Amino acid sequence: MTGSFPKALWYDGTTNQGRIGRTKMTNVLANIFGSSPVQPLERHIEIAFRCAKQLRAFFAAAVEGNWDQAVVVRNEIEKLEHEADDLKKNIRLRLPKSLFMPVPREDLLELLLVQDKIANRTKDVSGIVLGRKMQIPPAIAEQFLEFVDRNIDAAKQARKSVRELDELFTSGFRGAEVDLVSALIEELDQIETDTDDKQAALRAALFAIEDTLNPVNAVFMYQVIELTGEIADMAERVGRRLELLLSH
Amino acid sequence: MEAELVYIGLAALFGIFMAWGIGANDVANAMATSVGSKALTIKQAILVAAVFEFLGAVLAGGEVTSTIRKGIVDADLLSDSPELLIYGMLASLLAAGTWLFIASKNGWPVSTTHSIVGAIVGFAAVGIGIDAVQWGQVGTIVISWVVSPLTAGFIAYLIYRSVQRLILRQDDPLAKAKRYVPVYIFFAAFTITLVTILKGLQHVGLTISLRDSYILATAIAVGIALIGAFAIRRIQPDKKAEKHQHFYTVERVFGILMVVTACGMAFAHGSNDVANAIGPVAAVVSVAQNGVITAKAALPIWVLMLGGIGIVIGLATYGRHVIATVGKKITQLTPSRGFAAELAAATTIVIASGTGIPISTTHTLVGAVLGVGMARGIEAIDLRVVARILVSWVVTIPAGAFLAVVFFFIFKTILP
Asked: Cβ contact (<8 Å) for B169 and A25?
């Protein structure tokens, strides 16, 4: 098994049942393996991360007031969020209760759910900003972009951690691989703490200038900061879910 | 002598048809794991399968063949009418072949072994009489059908556990793999060679003392392990691929091991399943040639070769496609997992073959895969499919028996 994501293997829109029905000459050995959720989960976090990553370009455009460009990026975000959503549904469909797996099915589904929320929050926050054509106050623009970057870093670290899933399955959730993933999650926690600090600082900076802003805009700006920060929160929860898998 | 030629001709025809079916469908189970994990290309897999299925059939298939030939039906009851045994064996072959055909058309996971044993028991019990069946022996066989998957599962569990402990959970799995994989190769080669020497070679007219057998098996296994170790040393870490998958190069080391276990699996499969097709042929040939049922008649080697050839034709005509298809579907069985399953299954099967017990290779392999799963080695196993296997297990025996009875009475009416 290689680390690349073989698209045709799984994400091809067919169901396992369909496959059994179509091939007349079925083979016991081929069918005894359920659809493994591991590669699809790794693929899902990849999409979720790529979605979150778009926020950098999106907010860069928003700060400049380049709304044409923002629309282009926003379309890409929507597309990726859709893709993540489809894959999420697909994975759920193929994890029937009859599957025998080394870790509880519920834990994998929970992991999938929080992974998906990374993409959801990205879509939400970009939707608000674009819908209101929100002007990011120039005084805090640079600080805000840094904050966005750090949230993307958290999503990236979540991706890095989830990418270890297949190695975890191979080693049976014990040994050196577990230490490696624990270290990755610890780093993820640090990044998340950092985003929290940045978020607090950003709110303070916004508070200092909020009298100069249109009150409605100020309220929404707080909300945008809040939603953006949730990307790192979700990334951290991905780490928590992975940790639960490790404890099995 | 006209009638005898007809019997032998029919038996050879049915036997080769069944062997063809086994080569076309069943062999995929033994080889697909190696293809799926890219340890072998399709062409190499066909070659390995052809050679080792044939060798398995000829060298180690004798015991199972004689069980099928004379272990299930009590030949003493038939000494007055030996032709009944001929009709029955022909009927069993046709029944098992037909049932396998129906089953694979419908995608039911049935076993060759279960069909043929069911068929023979059926024709004997109904066509001749309840007493004609050696129930003690049949009981042993049926128990072995339960025991063999469990045994293979348990061995696979232990093997995979040891792999996890010694290699996969270590800080430097590649170095550990390079150190321990040759040891696994030794054990794989040793077990299969030893059973072949102990149980198989007498059928081709060779007898070697027990002590010499052990020495010979050790020598061969050491030789194979050395070749393996040499191949492993040449594997260089692929840093780029390892960035995505830390076990990438480790799995390639296991790939070498998998070549050995694939040979073993093909050999084991040949030794057990070919015998199922060829046992009834051997029975027909011996009765037809001698006119009487002789329990001591030697097994003609050409009969075993007939089975081997049938399998190879099956492989070449149809089996390669099945191997390719199955190989694509079982990517979960990476070399480290696949070898554990294959080695456990091959060991169990070869030992069963050595003692003359016809077991189901596929079910044994499924048991081994479940064993790896129990060691938390497999990402997802569909228990519904496992349940279907159990159901088909129960259905196949009466189905084979029923068809055999029907064919038996037809043959009894139309054949001379």
From this structure: no
Which domain range does residue B316 map to? Answer: 2-414
Inspect the interface and report whether the beta carbons of B168 and A172 lie closer than 8 Å: yes
Binary contact (B380, A37; C-beta < 8 A): yes
Residues of chain B in contact with residue A91, where contact means CB-CB under 8 angstroms, are none
Give dist(CA B15, CA B21) in Å, integer: 10
pLDDT in tens, B93-134: 999 988 888 887 777 777 888 899 999 999 999 888 888 888
HSE-CB for B378 with a 13 A CA cutoff: 30
Q: How far apart are CA A199 and CA B135, in angstroms?
A: 80
Mean pLDDT, residues A72-97 = 94
Query: In chain B, whose CA is at the least distance from the CA of A95?
Result: B380
Residues of A in contact with B380 (CB under 8 A): 33-37, 95, 99-101
Tens of pLDDT along A163-188?
999 888 888 888 888 999 999 999 99
Cα→Cα distances B283→A145, B112, B223, B322, B355, Å: 84, 18, 39, 31, 19
Partner-chain residue, chosen from A24, A29, A36, that has the shortest CB–CB distance to B380: A36
Pairing type for strands A99-100 and B381-382 reads: antiparallel
Q: Rounded CA gap, B358 and B141, in Å?
A: 7
- Pull the structure tokens for residue B207: 């007898």
User: In this predicted model, what pLDDT tens digit does every residue of A111-145 receive, in sequence order?
Assistant: 999 999 999 999 999 999 999 999 899 999 999 99
Domain limits for position A113: 37-246
Is A28 contained in some domain? no
Predicted confidence (pLDDT) per residue in B358-382, tens digit: 998 888 988 999 999 998 888 888 8
- The answer for residues whose C-beta is within 8 angstroms of residue B156's C-beta and 6 or more apart is B340, B341, B343, B344, B345, B367, B368, B369, B370, B371, B372, B375
Q: Is B106 exposed, middle or buried (0-12, 13-18, 19+ CB in 10 A)?
A: exposed
Q: How many domains are contained in chain A?
A: 1
Interface ipTM: 0.76
Which residue(s) pair with A99 in the sheet?
B382
Residue A1 counted as domain residue? no
Q: What is the CATH number of the domain that holds A205?
A: 1.20.58.220
Which residue of chain B has the CA closest to A160?
Answer: B244
- Asked if the C-beta of A174 comes within 8 angstroms of chain B's C-beta atoms, the answer is yes
Query: Is A80 inside any structural domain?
Result: yes
Structurally, how many domains does chain B consist of? 1
- Residue A183 lies inside a defined structural domain of this protein: yes
- Give B240's contacts (C-beta < 8 A, 6+ positions apart): none
Q: CA A82 to CA A87: how far, in whole Å?
A: 9
Do B10 and B18 meet the contact criterion of CB atoms below 8 Å apart?
no
Closest CB from B104, B171, B384 relative to A25: B104
